[in-house]
Amino acid sequence: FRVFKINLPAAAAAAAPARVSAEELLKDTLMFLVRLFAVVIGLVSSYKIRLYAVQVYGRVIHEFDPWFNFRATQYLVDNGWKKFFDWYDMSVWYPLGRPVGSTIYPGMQFTAAGIFHA
User: Fold this and answer.
1) Which residues, in sequence order, are CB contacts of 117 under 8 Å at separation 6+?
2) I need a surface site. Which of 3, 11, 26, 106 has the fewest CB within 10 A?
3) What's the pLDDT tens digit per position in 56-71?
4) Contacts of 59 (CB under 8 A, 6+ apart)
């Protein structure tokens, strides 16, 4: 067996952390607190923004209506994409109706129709 000799004082000196001054410690602590404060403010603000409609209008589903999205996906599956973009839905926005194909972002409907056909 080969024995390796390690100079312990030199290895300990290399592994020992450098001394940090009180000013650097204070600066690092303040920067951590500023970052923590910014993250907390961001989280609280995003929570309040997300719940604004619930606080003002109550617990009502507004524009992200899952029943409409289901109906739109069903129409796409049953009639194809050409008729989907020309679809004028008279059962919503009474009495005018809604030109569905030109007023929605159809990504979710096409994804759901693709999964249905897969």
Assistant:
1) 77
2) 3
3) 877 766 666 778 889 9
4) none
Contact 89, 100 (CB under 8 A): yes
Is residue 71 within 8 Å of 87, Cβ to Cβ? no
Instruction: Give kind and range of the element (H or E) at residue 89.
Output: strand 88-89
| Residue 92 near residue 98, CB atoms below 8 Å | yes
Contact 99, 88 (CB under 8 A): yes
pTM: 0.47
Q: What six digits make up the tokens of 17? A: 């952390």
CA 83, chain centre distance (Å): 32
Question: What was the pLDDT predicted at 68?
Answer: 84
Query: Residue 104: helix, strand or coil by DSSP?
Result: coil
Q: For residue 58, what are the β-bridge partners?
A: none
**Residue-wise pLDDT tens digits, 90-104:** 887 777 888 988 888
Length of the chain: 118
Find all residues with CB under 8 Å of 104, minimum gap 6, and list them: 72
Per-residue tokens: 82: 């050409």
